[in-house]
């Protein structure tokens, strides 16, 4: 008899985005004449830039030529890409990370989920509420939790509420987590962590022999010079942190697929007898056993992001999205909303009006003005009463959506 992994039965039925899709589809079918503006799912809208595309094409050409053809590449990624990452993302910022610490992959969603596999089932996981739903769901799948309670919290996960009172930056939890997921700039709140905040977390992890799983998928959107781009900018972090980065939002790779995980040699975890072990070789073993590398043309395309021209083009696209966010902040504030994020992140986090619930607000915007956003409650119970607007959209759509919202709430 084939037995299932019963942890999957603990998961709540729908992932957030299919539910949004269902409601939008139903509305669209019943109202085919309405122009719906989508600012819901966190997916980029701008195409790959010309230098990235050129490198991508050149990589494809090499695959069609016997003298340059490539078969399996190194599972951890080609040296040309790992070295470009180490040099530009880390060494250029004074952070001593080498190519050897970098594992190229097909996505941070997979990496943040898969990383759980090299850690024991007895670890207590600390997760922010609200946040990217992948951390909690993969923790449940891995078997580290109990069931889901009435309030939406899973037993054995240590939730760290992020709200207006703490500026959407988690306080140190009362109970000690062994693995701590942090995501800055944050999805969905668009908030960032200062050096002081990250230092506090790094010290906490050092004191408690915990590990921070730092998701920096939106690092490229940081505009404020004082905000760290990497947790490894904090002294001591190499002993207690793993960093996840992705080209998805940085350079429009959501459909192209390329990301990387950074694990310094200094990072240690412990066995049940309390002996310390390097984490990097465990991930190396996992990665080389279960993953066969990102395709060569895609890695060439990713490396082009680090050329002078690539950097310039990429920055222009990021600035375009950030300008969208500025337009949104201005309009929403003028319409009387309390607004967060959107400055160092592509997400604008809005408090609904009149204590409206997130899904109520979602339906109101969809039905009355045909604008789609993301209900905050979908990212965790503390997101209730909030709403996320994504700046990944065409300019005229942003402007039209903001005009519709202004009109609706000016009434
Ligand atoms: C979009 C996103 C990612 C990137 O995932 P990929 O699998 O690399 O596309 C990672 N973390 C967060 C929080 C995200 O929003």
Report on this model:
The strands form four sheets. Strands 2-8-7-6-5-3-4 form a seven-stranded mixed sheet, sandwiched between helices. Helices cover 37% and strands 14% of the residues. It has 411 residues and is an alpha/beta fold. Helix 4 runs parallel beside helix 10 and helix 11 packs parallel to helix 13 (395-410). It contains 13 helices and 15 strands. The protein is globular. It has helices at residues 7-10, 16-30, 50-63, 79-90, 108-114, 134-141, 195-208, 247-251, 280-290, 296-304, 308-334, 358-369, 395-410; strands at residues 37-38, 102-105, 125-129, 157-161, 179-183, 211-215, 241-246, 259-262, 268-270, 276-278, 339-341, 347-351, 371-372, 374-375, 386-390. The chain folds into two domains: 11-47 and 309-408, Aspartate Aminotransferase, domain 1; 52-307, 3-Layer(aba) Sandwich (Aspartate Aminotransferase, domain 2). A hairpin with a 5-residue loop joins strand 11 (339-341) and strand 12 (347-351). Pyridoxal-5'-phosphate binds at residues 42, 107-109, 132, 183, 187, 215, 217, 246, 248-249, 254, 259.
What is this structure's SSE topology?
Layout: H1 7-10, H2 16-30, E1 37-38, H3 50-63, H4 79-90, E2 102-105, H5 108-114, E3 125-129, H6 134-141, E4 157-161, E5 179-183, H7 195-208, E6 211-215, E7 241-246, H8 247-251, E8 259-262, E9 268-270, E10 276-278, H9 280-290, H10 296-304, H11 308-334, E11 339-341, E12 347-351, H12 358-369, E13 371-372, E14 374-375, E15 386-390, H13 395-410
Helix pairs in contact: 3-10, 4-10, 5-6, 11-13
The chain binds pyridoxal-5'-phosphate.
């Amino acid at each position: 008899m084939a037995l299932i992994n019963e942890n999957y039965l603990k998961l709540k039925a729908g992932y957030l985005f299919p539910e949004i899709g269902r409601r939008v589809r139903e509305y669209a079918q019943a109202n085919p004449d309405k122009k719906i503006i989508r600012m819901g799912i966190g997916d980029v809208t701008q195409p790959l830039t010309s230098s990235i595309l050129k490198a991508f094409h050149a990589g494809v050409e090499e695959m069609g030529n016997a003298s340059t053809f490539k078969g399996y590449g190194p599972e951890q990624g080609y040296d040309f890409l790992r070295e470009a990452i180490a040099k530009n993302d880390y060494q250029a910022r004074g952070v001593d990370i080498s190519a050897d610490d970098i594992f190229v992959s097909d996505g941070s969603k997979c990496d943040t989920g898969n990383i759980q596999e090299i850690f024991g089932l007895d670890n207590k996981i600390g997760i922010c509420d609200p946040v990217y739903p992948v951390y909690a769901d993969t923790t449940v799948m891995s078997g580290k939790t109990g069931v889901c309670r009435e309030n939406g919290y899973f037993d054995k996960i240590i939730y760290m509420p992020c709200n207006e009172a703490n500026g959407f930056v988690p306080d140190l939890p009362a109970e000690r987590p062994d693995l701590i997921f942090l995501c800055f700039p944050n999805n969905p709140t668009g908030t960032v962590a200062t050096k002081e905040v990250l230092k506090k977390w790094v010290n906490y992890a050092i004191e408690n022999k915990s590990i921070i799983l730092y998701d920096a998928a939106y690092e490229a959107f940081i505009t404020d010079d004082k905000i760290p781009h990497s947790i490894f900018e904090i002294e001591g972090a190499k002993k207690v942190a793993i960093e996840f980065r992705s080209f998805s939002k940085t350079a429009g790779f959501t459909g192209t697929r390329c990301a990387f995980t950074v694990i310094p040699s200094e990072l240690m975890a412990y066995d049940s007898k309390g002996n310390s072990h390097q984490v990097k070789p465990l991930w190396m073993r996992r990665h080389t056993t279960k993953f066969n590398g990102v395709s060569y043309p895609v890695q060439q395309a990713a490396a082009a992001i680090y050329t002078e021209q690539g950097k310039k083009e990429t920055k222009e696209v990021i600035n375009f999205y950030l300008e969208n966010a500025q337009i949104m902040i201005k309009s929403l504030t003028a319409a009387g909303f309390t607004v967060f994020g959107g400055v160092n992140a592509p997400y604008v986090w809005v408090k609904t009006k009149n204590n409206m619930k997130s899904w109520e607000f979602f339906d109101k915007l969809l039905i009355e003005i045909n604008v789609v956003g993301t209900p905050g409650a979908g990212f965790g119970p503390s997101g209730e009463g909030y709403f996320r607007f994504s700046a990944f959209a065409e300019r005229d759509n942003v402007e039209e959506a903001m005009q519709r919202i202004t009109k609706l709430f000016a009434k």
